[in-house]
Amino acid sequence: MNTGTVLILVSLVLSLVSLYFLARGAAGNVLAKITARRIFYLSGISITFAVILLFFAFISHSFQFNYVYSYSSCDLPLAYLVAGFWAGQEGTSLLWVFILYVLGFFPIRSNDRDECLVVSIVTISQIFLLLVLVIYSPFRYLLQAHPEQFAVGSIPPDGAGLNPLLQDPWMVAHPPVLFIGYAAATIPFAYAIAALLRNDFSTWIVRSYRWTLFTMTSLGIGIFLGGYWAYKVLGWGGYWGWDLVENSSLIPWIVLVALMHGMIVQRRRGALVRTNIALALLSYILVFYSTFLTRSGVLSDFSVHSFSDLGLSRHLIFFMLFYVVISAFLFAKRFGDMRSAKLGESAVAWDTLVAYGIITLCLYSFLILAGTSMPIVSSIFSNPFSLQPGYYNGIS
Which of 251, 16, 228 is nearest to 123 (CA)? Predict the structure, then answer.
């Protein structure tokens, strides 16, 4: 076991301990709340060192690591060595959990009533990703991954290199920005869960509004950067070719746009309370569904952006179902308590028009989701197939 793997394990253990104290802090134990903060910081420091170590492994051409060997070579310029960090599944998982720690730093210092509940949800997401990293570590040795190809103690003089299509300046910016959006979606979701647990559906909007705006903006910028990059690369379908992996990022973004508008109505009129809670929950679940589509290998025959399956499918499905069940249970339990004001009586009142827009956006995202999921659905009954771009252009 090497230093990088140890750092991930330490972060995992500290996150589990932090979750315990966060739960006690949420119950009103002030000392537990303070302890949870300190342990959360230590866990974040541990994963930060793991990130630094992996960056250093790429820059120093440490080809004894399978991940570094697979996504870098000696002739790559520094920018593409850095981009190699998030070229594969293991690196993007490490990037995701690191961003979660950075974002979690803000609510844990907020001193508001829901601090412990919100950070508990963030920590659960961190624990899941850390478990994935323990199983599929970016610090796995090359000899462990390919014992039949390399002799004990031998280190290849060069790596396999980065895919030529990924050797583009936008590779440096697009994935990190996209994953900032993915990670940030945890915070509105966490505030919505906290609202359901506290049975308080007014204050969560104030606290999560800016986070929702930040999530929508960062995810939108990530999608835009990906579209511009695809326009430059021959065969990637122009700005928007309705590639299934591209769609999977677009779906939660559309839901976030609907949520932003719903929050505006709730803040001004006190309406759409149930709608906003549902959209906040749904947006994060869709982020994980997007991750499943991208990383499970189910779209590998239909998308140029899909990762091959490392065996993550079961873990992603379990975690997604975990949040679906928790969200559905809490939403059903509090459904009668989520009272809201009525919309304007006029059919052309501004809040009524916004509500129509939200319905339209949700319907649009559902139709894209149905089309994007077609390879999975069709594989149950026959040979899997995907819908052509004409379907998406038609519903647009």
Answer: 16
Distance CA 277, CA 184 (A): 16
* pLDDT by residue, tens only, the chain of 396 residues: 799 999 999 999 999 999 999 999 988 888 999 999 999 999 999 999 999 999 999 999 999 999 999 999 999 999 999 999 999 889 999 999 999 999 999 888 776 778 889 999 999 999 999 999 999 999 999 888 777 777 777 788 888 999 888 888 889 999 999 999 999 999 999 999 999 999 989 889 988 999 999 999 999 999 998 888 877 765 555 667 787 888 889 999 999 999 999 999 999 888 899 999 999 999 999 998 888 888 766 665 555 555 555 666 778 888 889 999 999 999 999 998 888 888 876 666 788 889 999 999 999 999 999 988 888 777 777 777 777 788 888 887
From residue 34, alpha-carbon distances to 23, 37, 124, 226, 282 in Å are: 12, 5, 19, 41, 31
Burial of 143 (0-12, 13-18, 19+ CB in 10 A): middle
Q: Rounded to whole angstroms, how far apart are CA atoms 237 and 233?
A: 8
3-state secondary structure of 292: helix
Specify the 3-state DSSP secondary structure of 65.
Answer: strand
With b for 16 or more beta-carbon neighbours within 10 A and e for fewer, the 208-245 pattern comes to: bbebbbbbbbbbbbbbebbbebbeeeeebeeebbbbbb
Cα 47 to Cα 51: distance, rounded to the nearest angstrom? 6
The span from the CA of 216 to the CA of 95, in Å, is 19
Taking alpha carbons only, the member of 282, 247, 259 closest to residue 395 is: 247
360 backbone φψ class: left, alpha, beta (φ>0; ψ -120 to 50): alpha
Report the alpha-carbon distance of residue 111 to residue 272 in Å, rounded: 28
pTM score, whole prediction: 0.91
Give the burial class of 344: count Cβ atoms within 10 A of its Cβ; 0-12 exposed, 13-18 middle, 19 or more buried.
middle
How far is 229 from 200, CA to CA, in rounded Å?
A: 43
d(CA 140, CA 90): 10
